[in-house]
């Protein structure tokens, strides 16, 4: 593995990545949809054809991980097999099928002086993606950036270095064959952590950093970066069961929101129950959760009714379990739910279950989260489920993009003004 | 003037501003258009009624500025008079008349599983505006934020402290009378520079910083801020005169782009002339500039033809003069112009003058600036001229908003998802 130790080396390496990225960006910005799709389709073909080579590179990473005593769970994230490689190739094919956002007109209008103004989507420019063990991010992020006209500099986890390098080589080969610069996709060729620091200071050429990983990575990037960051922070998602909720619907939706997959960012972590629904709705919902193997931590009202519930503390209201555990709080109607979410939420995804349209409208208007839902499972917080196709992540930023970030959200716009020799008085 | 020196004080003051801002933000986010308009119209009325008090406060600032030896030009920026106060009040009336962007649906679609998804504009949240001597920014920025549902914390220049305080007091009185929290607008009550540092680190409650001022302010904010920044950097704007340009149109547009007002960010700084147009277009354009009192600095081809032109150096291509000076470079057609702009431009505003639609299309597509124009003066780079109404500035960011930032650009969106008890398989 190409590990460097001298900080000067990291600086020089990142500067060279930048020089190449800037050159590639000019061509990619103006590339035709056809050329981009050709490169992506070819990359999918190469990934399928070179499955053995990818798996061999991955085996090196797995071997090193085992030697380093990596946990089974992390090893599973790192592991590639035939099905997972096919999944990557399929992901590229899916991105080929998505519409190209570049060049689309967002809006247009004409001024009284005759100036015709339009806003047209253009690529953001050069995006740095900093991620951890999952090698499939290499293909996903690379392809999303290519399709949206953005040059990407990938900084994968050191654990997945060989796997990522094998995948990047195929993307670059496909780019070249399609007549696009291979430097549209570059992998930081060192696992030196100093290279990350260099990227975070590269305001001269890097337009955006997308960190994908655990809290400590996001924290480091947020603290150190001088480059704008599109980030995903906590997903402390809430489901509020209102007095006017259908009991069967509440039971289904809460069970799905919490237990379908407990490890995704859209999984519900806290159930809020209307005080007026405690005696009718609470136990059907909790019984179903118990049946599915979910631990329940509740306030005193909940404990009074559910003998299996343990005591929730304030820390529970602030915890993203990502596990089969749910905290349950009693609130005074929709106002109480809105207040609880404002106090303890992470502005990710919240859902209200109610048959009352007026109550739903208040919740949807006043809960200030990236995604607010009515009678739907929080597990729909996902680019694919939104119909965006692939996503590079869910943004909990307030600026630029909130919620799922797909191709469109990876673009910005320019203002085009057309006159007839028009001058300003 | 309330100048504090202990850094602890600045930290405590800014923390208290934050506490109040967060409380006010909940009410303002959900305020009706009517309430916001009532507050703004009332503020305009109060500003007119209290002109004498505002001028008295401004006189204190001017007196201190004179004593400190401030230049005449800066004193003029600081000075208020009846006409300028009326201009502020008129500015508020204009913002009342603009449509409220909050709650507007950007797009909506339905998924095959029946989920109805929409993206709806919501306020960004809490915005910090850090500005220099111009006291009118207090009213403009305050009103734009109120109308777009954003709480604003204003940090005016110490030179304009009394003027800004007088204006903020009237805005707060109007907010209160309209039933909105007066803390929707707060002025940092100290001129201690440490307070700016505290704002730049206030990621816990501040959603956006908008610096308005000179290069050194922007540089400090860019370097230090942990809060996202919407900034306006250099405006090294170019006009390219193509071989297919109408000579009279080129002459008019260049003269307007450079000389209408030389101090605005959209003023042209560099003229690019197609080598194929040197003998036909150059001298008519330059003669007009000379006639208007503009200094010309050109490359050797320009100097050969214009005896009054002095020699331009590479530094000229990188200079925003904001003065009656223009640099003139010969380029090889539209490709040369695109290359020159990519190398030396600041991605603000560039215009092509040509009668050739294909050439114009290439320029508009390939020049990667916030605003690209065809047959129009770069001096139209302005929110009012775009029809946005008032603007808080021109963004040279690539993310979130590019070009003029008006009410719409001061919002973000939330994703609203409506189901029928929908769960994810």
TrEMBL record, chains A, B:
Q: Which GO terms describe its cellular component?
A: cytoplasm
Q: What is its main location?
A: cytoplasm
Pathway(s): Amino-acid biosynthesis; L-proline biosynthesis; L-glutamate 5-semialdehyde from L-glutamate: step 2/2
Task: Tell me the domain of life.
Answer: Bacteria
Taxonomy of origin reads:
Bacteria, Pseudomonadati, Pseudomonadota, Alphaproteobacteria, Hyphomicrobiales
Its keywords, alphabetically, are: Amino-acid biosynthesis, Cytoplasm, NADP, Oxidoreductase, Proline biosynthesis
| Family note | Belongs to the gamma-glutamyl phosphate reductase family.
A Pfam family the protein falls into: Aldedh
Record-given protein name: Gamma-glutamyl phosphate reductase
InterPro entries for the chain: Ald_DH/histidinol_DH, Ald_DH_C, Ald_DH_N, Aldehyde_DH_dom, G-glutamylP_reductase_CS, Glu-5-SA_DH, GPR_dom
Enzyme class per UniProt: oxidoreductase
Stated EC number for the protein is 1.2.1.41
Q: Say if the entry is tagged with keyword NADP.
A: yes
| Amino-acid biosynthesis keyword on record | yes
A single GO molecular function term of this UniProt record: NADP binding
* Record's catalysed reaction(s): L-glutamate 5-semialdehyde + phosphate + NADP(+) = L-glutamyl 5-phosphate + NADPH + H(+)
Aldehyde dehydrogenase domain residues are: 9-292
As for what it does, the entry says: Catalyzes the NADPH-dependent reduction of L-glutamate 5-phosphate into L-glutamate 5-semialdehyde and phosphate. The product spontaneously undergoes cyclization to form 1-pyrroline-5-carboxylate.
């Amino acid at each position: 593995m190409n590990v460097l130790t001298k900080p000067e080396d990291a600086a020089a390496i990142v500067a060279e990545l930048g020089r190449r990225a800037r050159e590639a960006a000019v061509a990619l910005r103006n590339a035709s949809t056809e050329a981009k799709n050709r490169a992506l389709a070819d990359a999918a073909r190469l990934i399928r054809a070179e499955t053995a080579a990818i798996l061999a590179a991955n085996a090196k990473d797995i071997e090193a991980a085992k030697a380093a005593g990596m946990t089974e769970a992390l090893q599973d994230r790192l592991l590639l097999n035939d099905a997972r490689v096919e999944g990557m190739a399929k992901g590229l094919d899916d991105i080929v099928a998505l519409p190209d956002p570049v060049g689309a007109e967002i809006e247009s209008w004409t001024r009284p002086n005759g100036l015709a103004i339009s806003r047209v989507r253009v690529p953001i420019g050069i995006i740095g993606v900093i991620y951890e063990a999952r090698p499939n991010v290499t293909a996903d992020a690379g392809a999303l950036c290519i399709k949206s006209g953005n040059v990407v500099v990938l900084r994968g986890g050191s654990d997945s270095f060989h796997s990522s390098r094998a995948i990047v080589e195929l993307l670059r080969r496909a780019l070249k064959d399609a007549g696009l610069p291979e430097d549209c996709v570059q992998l930081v060729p060192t696992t030196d952590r100093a290279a990350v620091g260099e990227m975070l200071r590269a305001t001269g050429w890097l337009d955006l950093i997308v960190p994908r990983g655990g809290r400590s990575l996001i924290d480091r990037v947020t603290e150190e970066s001088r480059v704008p960051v599109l980030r995903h922070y906590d997903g402390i998602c809430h489901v509020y069961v209102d007095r006017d909720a259908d009991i069967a619907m509440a039971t289904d939706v809460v069970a799905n929101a919490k237990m379908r997959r407990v490890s995704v960012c859209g999984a519900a972590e806290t159930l809020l129950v209307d005080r007026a629904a405690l005696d009718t709705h609470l136990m059907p919902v909790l019984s179903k959760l118990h049946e599915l193997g979910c631990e329940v931590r509740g306030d005193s009202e909940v404990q009074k009714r559910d003998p299996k519930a343990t005591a929730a503390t304030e820390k529970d209201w602030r915890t993203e379990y990502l596990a089969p555990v749910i905290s349950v709080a009693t609130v005074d109607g929709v106002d109480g739910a809105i207040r609880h979410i404002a106090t303890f939420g992470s502005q990710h995804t919240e859902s209200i279950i109610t048959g009352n349209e007026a109550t739903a409208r208040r919740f949807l208007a006043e809960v200030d989260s990236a995604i607010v839902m009515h009678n739907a499972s929080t597990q729909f917080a996902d680019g694919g489920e939104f119909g965006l196709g692939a996503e590079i992540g869910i943004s909990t930023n307030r600026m630029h993009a909130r919620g799922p970030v797909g191709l469109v959200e990876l673009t910005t716009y320019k203002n085009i003004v057309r006159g007839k020799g028009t001058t300003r008085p």
